[in-house]
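Justification of resources, computational component.

The compute hours requested in this renewal are based largely on the per-chain cost of generating structure records like the one below. Each record pairs the submitted sequence with a full structure-token output. That output is archived, and it is also reused by downstream analysis tasks.
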Amino acid sequence: MERCEGCKERFKARPRSEQEIKSLVSRLNRIAGQIGGIKKMIEDNRYCGEVLVQVSAAESAMRAFGYLILEEHLATCVSDKIRAGDESIVSETVELIKKLN
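The structure output for this chain reads:
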């Protein structure tokens, strides 16, 4: 993938496979469905406790998605940069891990 001149977008050096993309998008679609369900619960004036259970489930699903992306990042981007001698990736990765929590 090409880099955008003059913008901050960056792209993976090793692109994801079509199957990986399909799996990740499928997970995101399920999470979007959970969020839509929560929205409907609010519109239907459902009991707060029931809404909170669904919020917790959506948060958990999103966190699991983040950990999947982190695992991929460590296995590809981080390891590639370390092999190339760029150890600055370590501090960047620590900051990313902090943001996940």
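The chain has one domain: 18-100. The first helix runs from residue 18 to 43.
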